[in-house]
Queue: 3 jobs
Job 1
Amino acid sequence: MKHRLTLYCDKSQLADLRNFLSGVLKDKPISDTTKFEVILAVEEVCANLIIHSHGCNSKDKITLQVQEIDDKLIFEIKDSGKSFNLLEYQAPLLGDVIREKRKGGLGIMLVKKIMDKIEFESNGKDNTCRLIKIMDSK
Amino acid sequence: MKHRLTLYCDKSQLADLRNFLSGVLKDKPISDTTKFEVILAVEEVCANLIIHSHGCNSKDKITLQVQEIDDKLIFEIKDSGKSFNLLEYQAPLLGDVIREKRKGGLGIMLVKKIMDKIEFESNGKDNTCRLIKIMDSK
Amino acid sequence: MLQIETSHEEKYALIVLKGEVDASNSVELDEAINGMVEDQNTHMLIDATDLNYISSAGLGVFMSYLEDFQEKSIRFVIFGLNDKVLHVFHILGLDQLIKLKPDKVAALQELYEA
Amino acid sequence: MLQIETSHEEKYALIVLKGEVDASNSVELDEAINGMVEDQNTHMLIDATDLNYISSAGLGVFMSYLEDFQEKSIRFVIFGLNDKVLHVFHILGLDQLIKLKPDKVAALQELYEA
Ligand SMILES: Nc1ncnc2c1ncn2[C@@H]1O[C@H](COP(=O)(O)OP(=O)(O)O)[C@@H](O)[C@H]1O
Ligand SMILES: Nc1ncnc2c1ncn2[C@@H]1O[C@H](COP(=O)(O)OP(=O)(O)O)[C@@H](O)[C@H]1O
């Protein structure tokens, strides 16, 4: 079964996203901690799209689709802003985060620690980011 | 009364310096913690001279004189290497210390936090660094 | 929804967080801490007992003050984190850099030890 | 004089420090920690019960590993510091960044909590 959600690019949508994901994950055979982690990781990617790719322009939309295939939970996030490949992103050093007092820079680190696999594709127009969690991995 | 010690520029001298200072401070009306702090600060300055100004060249010497004037303990450290004014030194940010993994960069910070007053003079040949602790300050 | 209550106790400043911190409201958390720093508080407690969620935006706010806390000798402790929120700090190893305590008693002890 | 004993317990690596750490021997401390990191230890304890002195050179060694500890998810706790040595961490606010515990029981608890 597939679950879909469309978000418009406003930060207030993040709470709705969490509600949606809690519902979707409710009966999945993973621990509460894993559910919490996975919700966090998906939110981080969506927050980045909303903020960095779409400048919080509420006319822009991103879509999320959640699917269970075999032992995998697949979160597919699509948008059509300027593409950003988080696989290529080099996380900052901790010292830089502290030194720059920049109040950010930890999101992608979290996503990479939480998810088992990350895929990214762009056809120049639409971008797809797939976050994959293996259901008995933790 | 004045107490004097001459150190040659080798790091092994630091332990002797501490012994000397413990003796000198023994009967001073300051807490054990303050004694400990003050010994540390003097050692930090001497260690910097030994390492940074004199490249651990054991032929070079530095002298320390300790004096009590009114409510002040005055530690006068003299050397004749290239002058380094620790008053002008800008301590690094914590984030830099962490990021650079440089295993140092905390000494002068300590000295400045511990001492009540620091003076520096150089006549181009001899350098004098005076570390002053007010005896009822802490 | 994030609710923030700040108060000045006799010996420390207290910020109580209730609800969820995410990218939409982390600036409020930032303002609360910034206010406490500007008021020259040297001992700060964050009560996170009723904090149900935190994303990287919230963690980032805490991290951005580590430099100030050290420069200004501010002691800062967060207490009462539930297991899930605590886990987020753990994932990034930030529990090694930010003092987290189970409850207020332990937090106050930490604030005033040695 | 600094004496360093390292051992691999079942669930953690232990480094026991005895004596004084200053600029003349901080490299030994560095080598001990580095060895433990290279051996892929993820849980490290430093027993500082018999550590009588530490100067900035020693503090700097600990600080230089914070980045590695975070990147490699290494949990690191120092325990048993006497009041004077603890005070040196406090002066610089490093007790906020490095986990310090009074004794081994508390240190192990910290190492394995949540
Ligand atoms: N979707 C995106 N589009 C453009 N830039 C992005 C995107 N996601 C992340 N970035 C860039 O990567 C940086 C790090 O992202 P992240 O780790 O989530 O931290 P934060 O967003 O809090 O700064 C961001 O500051 C931003 O410069
Ligand atoms: N006496 C000195 N002569 C030359 N440079 C010095 C001297 N003291 C300090 N410095 C410089 O200032 C830096 C900071 O000193 P300090 O805070 O004591 O840290 P550390 O000596 O551990 O690096 C040193 O790394 C060195 O570059």
Note: Residues B 44, 48-49, 52-53, 84, 89, 104-108; D 56, 60 surround adenosine-5'-diphosphate (ligand 2) (CB under 6 Å).
Job 2
Amino acid sequence: MSADQQRILARAAHEVIPGQIVNLGIGLPTQLFHYLPDEMEVLVHSENGVLGCRPRHADEAPDWDLIDSGGAYIATRPGASVFDSAMSFAMIRRSRVDVTFMGAFEVDELGNLANWKIPGKFSPGIGGAMELAQKVKRLVILCSHNDKHGNPKILERCRLPLTAERCVSRIITDKAVMDVTPQGLAVVDIAEGLSVSELREATEAELNVDERRLGRF
Amino acid sequence: MSADQQRILARAAHEVIPGQIVNLGIGLPTQLFHYLPDEMEVLVHSENGVLGCRPRHADEAPDWDLIDSGGAYIATRPGASVFDSAMSFAMIRRSRVDVTFMGAFEVDELGNLANWKIPGKFSPGIGGAMELAQKVKRLVILCSHNDKHGNPKILERCRLPLTAERCVSRIITDKAVMDVTPQGLAVVDIAEGLSVSELREATEAELNVDERRLGRF
Amino acid sequence: MTLLNHKHRLIEEAVAAIPHGASIMVGGFGSPGTPFALIDELLAQGQHDLTLIKNDANEPGIGVGKLIAAGRVRRLITSHIGLNRDAIAAMNRGELEVELFPQGLLAEKIRSAGAGHHGFLTDIGQGTEVASGRREIEMDGRIWGIEQALYADFALVHAEHADRYGNLIYRATASNFNPLMAMAADTVIAQAYRVDEPGSLLPEAIHTPCAFVSQVVEVARDTSEQGRRAHVG
Amino acid sequence: MTLLNHKHRLIEEAVAAIPHGASIMVGGFGSPGTPFALIDELLAQGQHDLTLIKNDANEPGIGVGKLIAAGRVRRLITSHIGLNRDAIAAMNRGELEVELFPQGLLAEKIRSAGAGHHGFLTDIGQGTEVASGRREIEMDGRIWGIEQALYADFALVHAEHADRYGNLIYRATASNFNPLMAMAADTVIAQAYRVDEPGSLLPEAIHTPCAFVSQVVEVARDTSEQGRRAHVG
């Protein structure tokens, strides 16, 4: 994992409150798993049908019946339950998951999210992302601020097919932490060593910055 | 229980084949319970959430968590399962119950059934009767041939609000066993000592009788 | 939603969250699964103008029968009240509004809410008076009735065994409407004979995952009608 | 429906009931819960022009991946095939029709069939391309998408433990779509690591009551991919 990714995860770990139910999307968000200590009373939901999962310890053999939605062999913690896919998504649609972390191809000023399809290039199906994005109480996006060609991923308007409309609460990238507000994107924290103008340069969306309240991470 | 009722039940017991799933309605049909021996591989479904119930033996204490849909404290047999009300009615709507026995206020030539409401006099709610009548593969009615005033219950057309349309397969009364056919009601068996003209006298519906094939019970 | 680590409560505290005029789902089919202790606490606290959603009206003098007799219930959404002559009398006097549904449709209306839907398409009741007044839609050459999802402010449920996160296990025919209601109400108060530490329940054996349960209270097995029934069939 | 006392079968016999062109639901999310032994038997028997309904396409060379690679599958109704590059390639070449649904909607379409409904009303996907082409209805001031129930001729499911009546218990995340599919298909063939006498399973622990299961076969834990996975995350 890159230093940028580690910074994103370390910052994201502060979003989780003991006692919450949390869902971790495939890819980078799954790694947040390792930032939630065993003694923390948090239940991680995986939409394939488990509430209360944790990474396997180094000395634990895989249980062939127990994976997370990304396909990794995992373990459970005390208080865990397992259930079928209808129950799992009922939990999601009834907003019983407190916070979910997801990756993104694009996010925009309205909180629209695109993270499942690149027409003509990538369309394996949306999996559980749509229900999670639309219904979970708080959706936090973890992604690189720019794609590998340097193009901004934080846009004025998403151009790819949407996962869900107006669903994102907060975006955490290697460069900034931004909240989606009725007035657009508000920068909460900015990466150590980065200037506001450098951040704006790397972003297509309009950014509201209150320098007096700006945090560093 | 009257001799007539016992005759109805004894005849009804022949309708059950080992290996079947059976539902017994409230009232007389519930008593059919006692005609299904413990060693017979039949699972009795009760719509409050159990498949595989049996009457308590004389020496068994009641289990306060285990009733049938009529409120009687019951027991279970090997192979029993318990489940919630949604699962119980899914089983009914998916026609996974092979045969159900029900009482009736009125049945008619088309196989229409009325057994839940007498406007202005009796309307406690339909309970599970509607789904059972509409969806179970085979519906057998167990009732007295005439009401306590001697009026026929086997009618040309039901006059009371229907439980379900064209749902009845067979009717077993103290006087006859009748099948609902595209040509109307066909008498299968007639009670010992009763003549066909006496039976017709006691019945409003048209009855088709093939005397050469008529059974006695 | 209450945090996982703050769900285990005293019964007085849990029930005090219910205001006058609330809509309340109540588990149970007959006595099994009826949360008698929670109902008695509601009776003691005095909430009124309630809308109750329950399969039946229990029997006179027990469970929701007490609430109805005390005039606390404005409206009852149910499938069958034949075992409670007081409820039938109150309905006939016009003191209790009663809305009746076939039992399986009532269960599915609640389940539909629990799954976060707005309703479902069914052929149950077509051709009977149940379908009169119900909105219909033509699809694939047939007419289907639209049954709307039934949500509620609160659910009172009874479980055999719980943990303090609110995971629930039901027993025998005491399950019935409880797991459905636990998903359909905004705030879910569960009573259980035992409330243990997380990890006490086998993950596969849990019927209602804790995500749906807001508060869990421990009740004694011999409290109220829980262990001694008026009606023994 | 098969009689209770005649459900316990040999795998060859159970799978032989499936004709060419059948629609078949297959349990499993990734490897857990995938009925590998039943799929391998289907591969051996040669049925073709199949419509499969499965959450995913497994991975290349295992499970339904084998059926797809062998050209047996005409159409796949699924939620995500990202772990099977062969399936994606077959889709892109136009050799495999793929219909994609959001996972929770796919689960509910199957559950809706399992409950005997014709469909349900949802707001999931409104405002996205998932809603394009979907019939809609206005109700209570909002627009709802109508998702139709998804039935199938057969379901192949995997359970941990069964009895010879066909009662099933699933384990851990091997449950997933299995209990839903067991209710939605006309004929349900279950494989289980153990098939015991009735009475061996606790009534409260049974996830799929035997009423839904047509045939049950016992499979060895180390048969096929069941106990040794290609993919270890």
Note: Chain D touches chain C through 29 residues (CB under 8 Å).
Job 3
Amino acid sequence: MIEDVPLRFGIPTPPARPGEMADFSYLEVPAAGTVERPPIDTAPKDMRDLAYTMIRVLDDDGAAVGPWNPELDVTSLRDGLRAMVMTRSYDDRMTTAQRQGKTSFYIRCTGEEAIAVGHALELRPDDMFFPTYRQQGWLIARRWPLVDMACQVFSNEKDRLHGRQMPIMYSARDVGFFSISGNLGTQYVQAVGWAMASAIKGDTRIASGVVGEGTTAEADFHHALTFATTYQAPVILNVVNNQWAISSFQGIAGGSRSTFAARAIGYGIPALRVDGNDYLAVIAATRWAAERARTNRGPTLIEWVTYRASAHSTSDDPSRYRPVDEWKSWPLGDPIERLKTHLITLGVWSEEQHAALIAETDAEVLAAAREAESYGTLLDGRVASARGIFEDVFKDMPEHLQRQRRQMEDER
Amino acid sequence: MIEDVPLRFGIPTPPARPGEMADFSYLEVPAAGTVERPPIDTAPKDMRDLAYTMIRVLDDDGAAVGPWNPELDVTSLRDGLRAMVMTRSYDDRMTTAQRQGKTSFYIRCTGEEAIAVGHALELRPDDMFFPTYRQQGWLIARRWPLVDMACQVFSNEKDRLHGRQMPIMYSARDVGFFSISGNLGTQYVQAVGWAMASAIKGDTRIASGVVGEGTTAEADFHHALTFATTYQAPVILNVVNNQWAISSFQGIAGGSRSTFAARAIGYGIPALRVDGNDYLAVIAATRWAAERARTNRGPTLIEWVTYRASAHSTSDDPSRYRPVDEWKSWPLGDPIERLKTHLITLGVWSEEQHAALIAETDAEVLAAAREAESYGTLLDGRVASARGIFEDVFKDMPEHLQRQRRQMEDER
Amino acid sequence: MTAMTMNGAIRSAIDVMMERDNNVVVFGEDVGYFGGVFRCTEGLQAKYGSERVFDTPITEGGIIGAAVGMGAYGLRPVVEIQFADYVYPGLDQLISEAARLRYRSSAEFTAPMTVRMPCGGGIHGGQTHSQSPESLFTHVCGLKTVLPSNPYDAKGLLIAAIEDDDPVIFLEPKRIYNGPFDGHHDKPVVPWSTHALGDVPDGYYRLDLGRAAVRRPGSDLTVLAYGTMVHVAEAAAQETGIDAEIVDLCTLLPLDTETIQKSVDKTGRCVIVHEATRTSGFGAELSATVQELCFYRLEAPIERVTGWDTPYPHAQEWDYFPGPARVGAAFRRVMAAR
Amino acid sequence: MTAMTMNGAIRSAIDVMMERDNNVVVFGEDVGYFGGVFRCTEGLQAKYGSERVFDTPITEGGIIGAAVGMGAYGLRPVVEIQFADYVYPGLDQLISEAARLRYRSSAEFTAPMTVRMPCGGGIHGGQTHSQSPESLFTHVCGLKTVLPSNPYDAKGLLIAAIEDDDPVIFLEPKRIYNGPFDGHHDKPVVPWSTHALGDVPDGYYRLDLGRAAVRRPGSDLTVLAYGTMVHVAEAAAQETGIDAEIVDLCTLLPLDTETIQKSVDKTGRCVIVHEATRTSGFGAELSATVQELCFYRLEAPIERVTGWDTPYPHAQEWDYFPGPARVGAAFRRVMAAR
Ligand SMILES: Cc1ncc(C[n+]2csc(CCOP(=O)(O)OP(=O)(O)O)c2C)c(N)n1
Ligand SMILES: Cc1ncc(C[n+]2csc(CCOP(=O)(O)OP(=O)(O)O)c2C)c(N)n1
Ligand SMILES: [Mg+2]
Ligand SMILES: [Mg+2]
């Protein structure tokens, strides 16, 4: 019989708050190339350790090492780098546009570019990606027109979504990019349903869904894993662990007690925990999971370890809740820098070429933004007509909506 | 590059349907006493294997063996046996009452008595239990009046719940039994919230919540584990895996891909998988988890492996979806028989005494049921007054409800 | 034509649609091998295989969420929520996703699906097996809501719902699965075989969504009802001798305001009946609409006869259920008004 | 007295109650160290510690579910849902549990709690940061629903909500956190410091739930409004010169029907204004109620001015928002009616 002690409430606290020294000692970073790569037909129970380590390919000198090295040719490497750099140029430009009032809102993905870009270039054209608001790298890697992206952000007359959606809530079916929802996590179980449908039809298309680590707490995360395992859906379930959910560090979602990759274990789903700032690791892990899915071996969960380098959004001020320079001490560095260094070590790239690339992507983005602006912005009010807000509520507009539309126009 | 194969939809199917031979080969049953008992301060990561085995104390000869043996004295053993036998007598009586139309509905817990009874006798009076509709054993073990139980089932004038709730939806605060909800799983996260409150106040009370294996798919299961791990709540999270969820076998909830105990691993919560038909294992596992909670070591998840021997409820006909005799081949037997055999091997019990006990509990239940009937049943319509249905919607009855009550009475 | 129960007609509708369109898939809790707790999918798994008719884990949110993804892929999921009382965990996927996907993607992606659920009381189900949440759905733009009152309508409307390219909520009053019920619970149960609308074509036919039906022409007052309450209103008309015109709405959204207006303009009096709780129930929308359309024709206040604003009690079910006596009393008040 | 913004008044109310009752705990997404995305809990964690003010995982269902358990233990949780648009994953715990626990346990267990959530549009938030789901809550018996229109009321009502022994939904129109807003988005923002009701006592005071307030006495017509729309109605009255009596409902459930009836009996005309979508919005219940209570006094059809039955658009926000022009047009129609 144990004697009574008063119970204690245990609330996880982040390693550092504003004014304190950034501290990532909680993150164990194994050397690149040290984690083995199991064959894709490995049973989930025989690879549980992969949920607790970190798959890394690029070492500190920029060399690609170990069994997970995807051995990409130089063109693929250059394409990846270009898309990442372009993504950052685009984020910079849109951030400026927001400050100028040309758009009401913007979300950057700085520091996380490798994940969406690598994923986009590794998966197939007819697969479907169920993204969050921080996966614009997919659109850029898949060469969706920058002008169309900017038109959506500016909510102008050419916005394919007719100004109905907030900026960055893209929808791009033509490049396998599912309509972004403002509601966290809902797309995760939809990705599983989409993948189940592909299997029911005996097709070959697979799905990939994304949530942030904070969103793993939502019900749809659990729904997705439950359905994925029960029906062995051909789906990749990504958790982008960028350490922060607005002002809440990853411990609030349970990250101090275990890894997010480990969540898959209890469902009998194989899990990979991957250095998300390592472009080659992103390609390799995506390939491994996609091959499993395509060969009827079911779902895979991938935790991408990365860091949200910028504010949550243009409405957020991270200096209120984390050290301003935390990003500088992030152990996994900057995905663009790391891939650049790799290309340079390979002898196929140089600082000059890199500077030229940035100049080029900045120019391309600027031109696209200028063109988009010529179709209007929220500032000059050249937005899609109000009549349009009554369309697409239903396939055919019911009478009550027609009535309301007439009334709207009468009362102007 | 792998070549394309058509995707397949993977749907788990139960080992046997009506007309087929029962088959429990999917269930691995280790010998009693073979699983080690880690100290209660063991880190979750150092005991993951306990989620994949089965803690058992009573061996096939009825001897109590191994490190999990709780070494109960004979009186405690007899109390446990009596409560289990009483529970079965009560279920029999109420099942008959339902056939006679004295109540609209009933749910038995046959084959699962050890879990609620052992749990009730091991936890403390001021702890709180958040049960499902299949935990009546707790009320009986805690000696809540059988008459009150029957009055609730008969929805009569003495029903403490005034006939508002369906039969078996008991609420018994005085014995730490939380109001049963008809909505699956909702109580699970409430148990965690209750435990968090106890910790916030620095009290010493712990909570215990229950769901069936089918209900692990509901959102609140995930919410409960997420909150429990983040705040290290002093709570026991029970999953009663009785193999069936109405007509769906446990594989539909994901049981074919992993164990339900393993769900805890990814949250960093320790998990025990226990023979739920072994009364001594129930006591031992409950004790281990309770001690952890009481000493600020946080939550524990326990999967109780058992079998739903009866129909889901009186509205259900299991012969439509499973072999009628499946129960006979259930490897873990009948919890009452097993504890009986144990007492007999100890030389403190006999078949005669057991027969006498059954006769006694049958009689006690019959008397209680008779008394309850004397206060009315659904059949004779002596139920709580209709006026009462407007009470307890709010603490104080708002005017619109008073108006509606007057109207109800006028329009009679 | 065959005499069908309401659940039989529902099963027949799904069968017909699975036969015609192999993108139709059926899933939910216990709907597969077992055929559903109300037998609405009985035999379908045997006929179409477990890839098109299957059991799901117990998670209404997961069921509807997966259906959204399947709909986006091109399937037409017909899912069952075992009781309408259990739809709430799935509301987010319905409200935030199914109802808005077409709009937010400017029709790049859509979520055709039919979400079936038994609703209403009268079976001693207590507060968690008796609810009528229809008004919640009607407040969500992007959802259509259907609630049939008989086997013939149930089949024709369910076929239309499955063929509809937008998400449709299909509520099934469980008390009338096996026969029309007029609220006289003490009387013997009447089977559908005795009712004209229990006679159902075996094959394909559809009844357009958004059309109400006048079940009983009358001149004294207009009753707006749906589901079980249509039969209760018929009993009340008969028992009071008041010549009520009974409009069965069939579809709550889009609402057939034309039929409603025509009737109330004629009678000048209106009683609205539903089983759901009163405050913000669909009767509120109906009353507001009638008042807007027929203000100058109204000779008496519009009355609402509804479930009380309490959870649905178990033992006192018949004090809660809006039966013929309460509806009849409203008829008299409305006729007495000057 | 201090000049307070609406979020300042809300923070003050929570502060006062945490001071008085250490069973009051505050939690939700980003409400702890950060103080909430709308700063409503700023400084509270520093003052009361992270055991009483803490961040939660991102799960509205978990937040409300845990709150039910805490309430049952004896605490008084005050939880924040970051935007009302995100409450849907928590609806099951609200509808099936919080609202029914007292009833189903015959008061053995109760779930006192206050669920705060910013609602309404006007901040370019698009469809997922602009919704007004109040009518859904009013349909759920067992829940009280409050929606204040100014700092003074917000504090007094929030204190009453926290002290209430039943679950209370507390909706906060985010567009007026920083100042009254009459719909003229092109005009400069007016701070609360210029408004009489921006003057708020620093200490404890409570305003009973269930009482409406007449903001502007008038004789031509009655306006029933709440939240932001109270200010829009005032602008419309001023701009049309129509002598509107503006009733600010403050609490939607329980509803102050006495004040409503008194006003409409006097004016004989009624316009209802809310931002939520029209069909089955709370305006429907209000219209039905007014019609039932004041039928013989009504000289014109009751009008509803509401958000359209579409998701809240981003770029066309001001075509959606029911501004003074639309409200004024309704005033004129109602006055013109004979
Ligand atoms: C259902 C729901 N709840 C809350 C929010 C508000 N919200 C928007 S983003 C965010 C944080 C998400 O963090 P995480 O999942 O880690 O993704 P990240 O922003 O880090 O990429 C929150 C709470 C929301 N959009 N939807
Ligand atoms: C939210 C919700 N969904 C569905 C149901 C209907 N239902 C009642 S019991 C049950 C099966 C539960 O199975 P399990 O969790 O394994 O518990 P068991 O009955 O086996 O003890 C179902 C689906 C419900 N009560 N609540
Ligand atoms: Mg994050
Ligand atoms: Mg079960």
Note: Chain A is about 35% helix and 10% strand.
